[in-house]
Automatic annotation (TrEMBL), chain A:
This is Carbon-monoxide dehydrogenase small subunit. Keywords: 2Fe-2S, Iron, Iron-sulfur, Metal-binding, Oxidoreductase. Residues 1-78 form the 2Fe-2S ferredoxin-type domain. The keyword Transmembrane helix does not apply. SUPFAM superfamilies: 2Fe-2S ferredoxin-like, CO dehydrogenase ISP C-domain like. GO terms for molecular function: 2 iron, 2 sulfur cluster binding; metal ion binding; oxidoreductase activity. It holds the Pfam family Fer2. The keyword Ribosomal protein does not apply. It comes from the Bacteria.
TrEMBL record, chain B:
NCBIfam families: pucD. The lineage of its organism: Bacteria, Bacillati, Actinomycetota, Actinomycetes, Kitasatosporales. It holds the Pfam family Ald_Xan_dh_C. This is Xanthine dehydrogenase molybdenum binding subunit apoprotein. Gene3D superfamilies: Aldehyde oxidase/xanthine dehydrogenase, a/b hammerhead, Aldehyde oxidase/xanthine dehydrogenase, molybdopterin binding domain. One of its GO terms (molecular function) is iron ion binding. It comes from the Bacteria. Residues 37-143 form the Aldehyde oxidase/xanthine dehydrogenase a/b hammerhead domain. SMART domains: Ald_Xan_dh_C (SM01008). InterPro entries: Ald_Oxase/Xan_DH_a/b (IPR000674), Ald_Oxase/Xan_DH_a/b_sf (IPR036856), Ald_Oxase/xanthine_DH-like (IPR016208), AldOxase/xan_DH_MoCoBD1 (IPR008274), AldOxase/xan_DH_MoCoBD2 (IPR046867), AldOxase/xan_DH_Mopterin-bd_sf (IPR037165), Xanthine_dehydrogenase_dsu (IPR017609).
């Protein structure tokens, strides 16, 4: 089948898609967006998290056909038009929250969604929001630092009272 | 290669930061920006427009004779290009890290659940999976050999490798053993010297490395008849060394380039899909990509050895250790992998960082029909640490002593002898580490008045509002060797080039080091900046075009490849300065390179590097070998077997819901001596990550194997700690330089994984009063509902 949808604001089209293919497979292997990662392909690790119509989902659990005509935003879409890192991306780099980095794309999307909903989450809120994203390298401490840093910068930029 | 495959080259990163980002600073990762943009090319991201997908047929039985394999139906599936069995292997059929006992594809029998029997290459991964299901295999299913008793009685239960089989040996089902005796050993007379004796039996479950990036890679057949493999691995050269004879190719025709690695932790030390992808590529003449699904990853790599241990410790009434007696039985599974070296570590480190006058040890690894076990972070020291630290707590209780004081009273220090007779000839601040971890502030006590139930055991499941929650605190310390031991001539190679690019002096560092996430690329750039006084450093992609870097394991890469980069950079500096001396007649011997200039301490700035170099480039390649070690004596375990020791101490605070048996680690504190922190940010990250894997082993992680069959090969059923399971991990680092190591550094990555598990179990014991002799501790152990 042919699937057409919007990926990071651009129209994309994939031909000869087998009905069983996931959105993750289509993104990674057919439309040249390998940023979303394939760690478990079972919805357990969160590495493949993307926005689907503005809602974070595990793209491995979305059948390709389900995205027909819809909007997908991946980690590749978090940077600015000029390639400048987004606020959450920069915070992960600055905090040393990236080691092997395989979990990073999913964590970035999930963190982006968290801070959009709540720019000043408590530590427990952060842990709850990111509990679906496994990381095997960092021990999560620096990920916590990164989210706190992103939160502080976001609040500073947007003038949210501390 | 298409543009997208070349994407791997993007991993070549220019580091353009100030030279304050030399050693001791914490410059950011050179690959960090690519990784947060989703542009870093991991091995599973490799792509070629003409590529096929490979997959393997795996055995559903842990032990069976293969009576026949019929691939004819699989070959008829449209889109299938090849179906291969061991008969299609052109060269040697067996390989292995230490003992070549593993067939690249099963021959006549299978020895573990999930062993690869046949390969398929097809135009779509689903086509390949469907074709695999059409391969018909007739098995004669045999009763698997899975327990210690069965393994040690081959006359009754049989052999995993029959004595007449290829690569079999004289030991029956014992893969390797190591004994150790020091002092008077452990005799009745020695026992009589102790006022208090405690003993215990301990068990460690099978842990998995569970790196997130699945085994994957792309094999591209080359015009010269060779093959290029883009691969996630820990050691490019040892992969090639095992692969080439199987592919029947000379080494130089098997070229490996490191693709992005999504974690390793020992699980990529053995081959997984390397040979398989290359066989399919060479057979079809097309590029072949293999990406394991998570279940295949659990079947496709070795795990941490499960262990059964028996310990006996004796001490005087005032707490001085008199003797320790230990037997450690490691289940190595179907193939040897790194089992011999793991046994050596368990035996030589198995009594912990303590001075014990009389010691006896017997460590063995068994062949069984369970999954193969090999390298995992902590490598034999982890299992033993759970045993000896449990014993120290038990002894403290029997003596009525504080467990930290008992440890400090017996702690090794510089100048002491290990039970192997090896003197500790570098700082060993074990007592100080314990004191520091004890002195760090405790988290506030549980406050039922102002409680967020999400922080309790059971967390989001809302299973408690504070009732039935008991807090406990536990301490532990551990010891780990750094680098390869027992006489292995461990070395690493680095090539450093200095040239002028765009009017700036730029250093290029080329090694075959596998960057698996640990941050070696950052550290190499820091070393080059420090030694050459430049700001810009380019890290060349790791490949087999430069000499071996050895393995990214054993906490050795900063020591070994970092040391090689240092040597090569020093050689470049020497050549540059010699050029200056020759050209300008400099007489000073106090020259150094700082801020892009040649500087004399007495005469000031002499010349910018750019002007001295001109259009020339200086390139030097150096190998770094560590000081020699010797194998342990087989019977006595004596010998200077280890290059360096590293120590970490932990304190765990836990809350336990004693009604439901749920554990929440509230805080896990670590203090570690790192000799010299080349990059403090990375060092702390390694320690926190290591502690978290230890937490996993303590309370949740286990590959459940029943009658040789794996029951939980998925992230649904094999649980690793989430951010909710993981507490704050405050870290303090000590920097007591090791006089034998480059910059005085000490390997960092493994020590916390060795030491942290026992502290968590100790804390749970303190909270519950349960004996807890098995890890992972499960709810049923705490509620007596086994």
């Amino acid at each position: 089948m042919r699937v057409t949808f919007s990926a990071n604001g651009k129209p994309v089209e994939a031909d000869d898609v087998w009905e069983g293919e996931s959105l993750l497979y289509v993104l990674r292997e057919r439309v040249g967006l390998p940023g979303s990662k394939n760690a478990c392909e079972q919805g357990e690790c969160g590495s493949c998290t993307v926005y689907l119509d503005g809602v974070p989902v595990c793209s491995c659990l979305v059948a390709a056909g389900q995205v027909q005509g819809r909007e997908v935003r991946t980690v590749e879409g978090l940077a600015g038009q000029d390639g400048e890192l987004g606020l959450v991306q920069q915070a992960f780099v600055d905090a040393g929250a990236v080691q092997c980095g395989f979990c990073t794309p999913g964590l970035l999307v999930q963190t982006d969604a968290l801070l959009a909903a709540d720019p000043q989450p408590s530590d427990t809120d952060i842990r709850e929001a990111l509990s679906g994203n496994l990381c095997r390298c960092t021990g999560y401490e620096k990920i916590m630092d990164a989210v706190r840093l992103a939160s502080a910068r976001k609040c500073s930029v947007e003038g949210v009272a501390k | 290669m298409t543009a997208r495959t070349i994407q791997g080259q993007k991993n070549l990163q220019k580091i353009n930061q100030a030279s304050k980002d030399g050693i001791g600073g914490s410059p950011l990762r050179p690959d960090g920006t690519l990784k947060v943009k989703g542009e870093f090319a991991y091995s599973s991201d490799m792509w070629h427009e003409d590529m096929l997908w490979g997959t393997a047929l795996r055995s559903p039985h842990p032990r069976a004779n293969i009576l026949s394999v019929d691939v004819s139906e699989a070959l008829k599936v449209p889109g299938v290009y090849a179906v291969l069995t061991h008969e299609d292997i052109p060269g040697e059929k067996y390989y292995g890290l230490e003992i070549a006992d593993q067939p690249a594809l099963a021959i006549d029998k299978v020895r573990y659940h999930g062993e690869a029997i046949a390969l398929v290459a097809a135009d779509h991964p689903e086509t390949a999976r469907r074709a695999v299901k059409k391969i018909k295999v007739e098995y004669e299913v045999l009763t698997p050999i899975t327990t210690e008793e069965q393994c040690l009685d081959p006359e009754t239960h049989g052999y995993v490798h029959e004595p007449h089989e290829y690569r079999s040996h004289a030991y029956g089902n014992i893969c390797h053993e190591q004994k150790l005796v020091s002092g008077l050993g452990v005799t009745d007379e020695v026992r009589a010297l102790a006022d208090v004796v405690v003993s215990g039996e301990y068990e460690v479950g099978m842990q998995d490395q569970a790196f997130l990036g699945p085994e994957s890679g792309l094999a591209v057949p080359a015009e010269d008849g060779g093959v290029d493999l883009y691969i996630a691995t820990q050691w490019l050269h040892v992969d090639r060394q095992q692969m080439a004879p199987v592919l029947d190719l000379p080494l130089e025709k098997v070229r490996l380039t490191l693709a992005g690695v999504g974690g390793a932790f020992g699980g990529r030390e053995d081959l997984s899909m390397q040979i398989h992808a290359c066989l399919l590529a060479l057979h079809t003449g097309k590029p072949v990509k293999i990406v394991y699904a998570r279940d295949e990853s659990f079947f496709g790599h070795v795990h941490r050895h499960p262990a059964k241990m028996r310990y006996e410790h004796g001490a005087t009434r005032d707490g001085k250790l008199v003797f320790a007696d230990c037997r450690i039985v490691l289940d190595g599974g179907a193939y040897a992998s790194a089992s011999p070296a793991v046994v050596g570590n368990a035996a030589s480190l198995g009594h912990g960082p303590y001075v014990i006058p009389n010691v006896r040890m017997h460590a063995i690894a068994l062949y069984s029909n369970n999954p193969s076990c090999g390298a995992m972070r902590g490598f034999g020291a982890v299992q033993a640490a759970f045993g000896y630290e449990s014993q120290l707590d038990k002894l403290a209780e029997a003596l009525g002593m504080d467990p930290v004081e008992l440890r400090q009273l017996n702690a090794v220090t510089q100048g002491d002898l290990m039970p192997t007779g090896q003197p500790i000839d570098a700082p060993a601040p074990v007592a100080e580490l314990l004191q520091r971890v004890k002195d760090m502030p405790l988290p506030p006590p549980l406050d039922l008045e102002h409680l967020d139930v999400r922080t309790l055991p059971g967390a989001l499941s809302n299973t408690s509002h504070g009732e039935g929650i008991v807090r406990g605190v536990g301490y532990s310390v551990g010891i780990k060797n750094v680098g390869f031991s027992e006489g292995f001539d461990d070395y690493s190679t680095a090539r450093v080039r200095l040239e002028v690019i765009g009017g700036e002096p730029v250093a290029m560092v080329h090694t075959a080091m596998a960057e698996v996430g640990q941050g070696g690329v950052t550290v190499h750039a820091q070393i080059a900046r420090t030694e050459l006084g430049v700001e810009q450093v380019t890290i060349h992609p790791a490949n087999t075009e430069v000499g071996s870097a050895g393995s990214t394991s054993a906490s050795r890469q900063t020591y070994m490849t970092g040391g090689a980069v240092k040597l090569a950079a020093e050689a470049v500096r020497h050549e540059l300065l010699e050029r200056g001396r020759h050209r300008y007649g400099w007489r000073q011997d106090d020259l150094s390179l700082v801020g892009g200039k040649v500087v004399s301490a007495s005469a000031g700035v002499l010349i910018p590097i750019v002007d001295l170099l001109g259009d020339d480039a200086i390139e030097q390649t150096r190998e770094h070998h560590h000081r020699p070690t010797v194998p342990f004596d087989k019977e006595t375990g004596q010998g200077f077997g280890h290059v360096q020791y590293t120590f970490c101490a932990n304190r765990a605070v836990v809350d336990v819901d004693v009604e439901l048996g749920l554990v929440k680690v509230v805080e896990l504190t670590a203090v570690q001596d790192v000799g010299k922190a080349l990059n403090p940010l990375s060092v702390v990250g390694q320690i926190q990550g290591g502690c978290t894997q230890a937490l996993g082993l303590a309370v949740m992680e286990e590959i459940v194997v029943k009658d040789g069959k794996v029951r939980n090969a998925s992230f649904t059923d094999y649980l690793i700690p989430t951010i909710l399971d993981t507490p704050p991990i405050p870290v303090q680092i000590l920097e007591l330089p090791d006089p034998h190591a480059p910059y005085g550094l000490r390997g960092v990555g493994e020590a916390p994984t060795v030491s942290a598990t026992p502290s968590i179990v100790a804390a749970i014991r303190q909270a519950t009063g349960k004996a807890l002799n098995r890890i992972p501790v499960r709810p049923e152990h705490l509620t007596d509902t086994l």
